[in-house]
Structures are given as structure tokens and as C-alpha cells.
Amino acid sequence: MKFPDELMFLKNGRAKQKQTSLSMTGLLTVVSGATSGVGLSTIKRLAKAGSNIVMVCRNQAKAEPIKRAIESQYSVSVDIVIADFMVFDSVKSAASLINKSYDRIDVLINSVGIHSTKKIYTKDGIESSFCVNHLSVFLFTELLLDKLIKSAPARIIHVSSEGHRFSGVNLKDVNFKRRIYTGLRGYGQSKSAQLLAMSAHNELLKGTGVTINACHPGAVKTNIGNNNGLLYRVFSKVITSRFLKDVSRASDALYYLAADPSMQAISGKFFHLTIEEKPAKHALTHDLVNPVYNLSKVMTGLANE
To answer: Are the beta carbons of 81 and 56 closer than 8 angstroms?
Structure first.
């Protein structure tokens, strides 16, 4: 049976995934959203492969026991950098600290993300899903680009989502001031913007030895959405979770994308776990790539620097 492009994720989610056993000893991986879900599982998997880790997270108290457990189990170093991706100044401070503290970054994995069923605005007046899932990830990546280029070969991986298929980007109303907000629409727009900005970064990084790709981590059990109301959380735990797989499936895929030699020259692609997949048409619209990139620079304040 031949699946249309829009439904290939159904086939790819059931397909046998690629694997690697390559050592990452001595490499440094920076991972945002590192204290739960995909991010936490990923740092454990990369540490097992020998990579030193920089955990980028909001909660120092939550991160400390994770750091101790990983360092005691594997012969790697784990550092903690605090950043709240709802606040641009916090993201900038984290990036500045990383740039000052480390000579190189071999892999950057942007795993931070939220799904909000309600329209919530940050202190900067930005819709929260668009801020966390796209703009702050964009800002963090931009601020680390020079270090990544100096460290080449290096890799950037965005933890993306098939949820990008729920909505394109409305450049005139990214903050949902003039249209009805739903959780799926807000989440979808943020992830579509992330893919479009990734295309812009891919063009900018050509010839540098730095690759950038996006990965849907599969239908796995995570804590995303736990910021929502009781009904949402109960439904997710009692109903939705029954259909989800262990999060190690996602971390194995991200380890493959971060470490396998076959990925060294592949860039600007969207993967369902380890299988390359075509994103939704609205996330491939060439005429939107530069406008989304430029809008993101303006909204994060980078256009003025």
C-alpha cells in the first residue's frame, strides 16, 4: 500500500528504525529541556555513548540528582545551565555562559517544548507555545552558531513534531490576537515556524561543516502538556498514554542522528525518528522561509544587535 506524503508518518512510525553504536567519547552535547521526557532520556543515552553533557533546564534542584546519577553511572561530566525558555533574557544569559565556558560544542539538541490548551502570553507579550517551541529555540541556536561553526564538524537537532501538520504560520498574527486559539493550532504554528527557520539556518550553514535537522521523536510517553488543566492531564494519563511507547525509542533515534557517520553531510531534513520524511507543504513553502527567519530575529531582539 502506497501512503500519500501526508500520511507517511503512519508507516514510518511502525517501520524498523536505524541504529548506531558509535562512541561519542570526548564530545560535548548541549541539550535543552533536559530534566524530563525526551530530553532526559536523550542525555542518558548520549552519556552511555560517552558524550559529556550540558543540561539546559529551568530547575536546578531537579537537575542536580540527575547530574549525580549520570556521572556516577558513566565516565562523563554533566554540567547544568539554567534557562527559562519563556524569557528571552534568560535564554541569552544561558547561551552567553555556554559560549564562555566551553571551547567547543559538538552537538546541540533543542528538546525543550510545551503544549498549551489555553492562550497564555509571556512577559514579553508573546504566545507561549510560539515563544518556547520556536522563538527561544531560534534565539538559543543563533547565539551558539559561531561556537558550533568553530567546532565543525558539528550537528544541530531540533526535536520537532508531526504536530506541525496542524497549522501553518500566520505571519500577520503569530500571537493569536485576531483569531481563535486552540492548543493544536498554537502548537502546530510553533513547530511549522521551527521547520521554516531551520531551512533558513540550513542555507546559512552550507559550507561550514555544521548540519541542522529536525526529528519527530515518535509517539512516546513524555510530560509535555502537564502544564494544562486537570481534565487534560487525566485524559493523557488514563487514555492517551496507553497508545504511547517508551521514550527510549526517541532517545535512540536522537543518538543515531547525533552520532552516526551517515548523518555527517545530511542537513535541512525532517526525520520521523530515523527515517527521512517530507513535512507538510506549509512547512516547505520557500517564500515563507526568509520572512519567518526575519520575523524571528525581530521578535527575539536579534535584529537590533
So the answer is: yes
Q: Where are the alpha helices (DSSP H) in 74-182?
A: 88-101, 128-129, 136-150
Instruction: List all residues 6 or more positions away from 215 whose beta carbon is below 8 Å from its beta carbon.
Output: 157, 158, 159, 160, 253, 254, 257, 270, 271, 272, 273
8 Å CB contact between 195 and 168: no
Contact 247, 220 (CB under 8 A): yes
Burial of 219 (0-12, 13-18, 19+ CB in 10 A): middle
DSSP secondary structure of 27-89:
-EEEEESTTSHHHHHHHHHHHHTT-EEEEEES-HHHHHHHHHHHHHHSS--EEEEE--TT-HH
DSSP SS3 for 272:
strand
Q: Residue range 282-290: average pLDDT?
A: 96
Closest C-alpha among 56, 145, 156 to residue 107:
156
The closest alpha carbon to 217, from 258, 261, 174, belongs to 258
Q: What does the block give as the cell for 256?
A: 543515531
For cell 513524555, the residue is 222
* pLDDT tens-digit readout, 90-137: 999 999 999 999 999 999 999 999 988 899 999 999 999 999 999 999
Inter-residue contact 218 to 197 (CB < 8 Å): no
Rounded to two decimals, the pTM is 0.89
53 in Cβ contact with 70 (< 8 Å) = yes
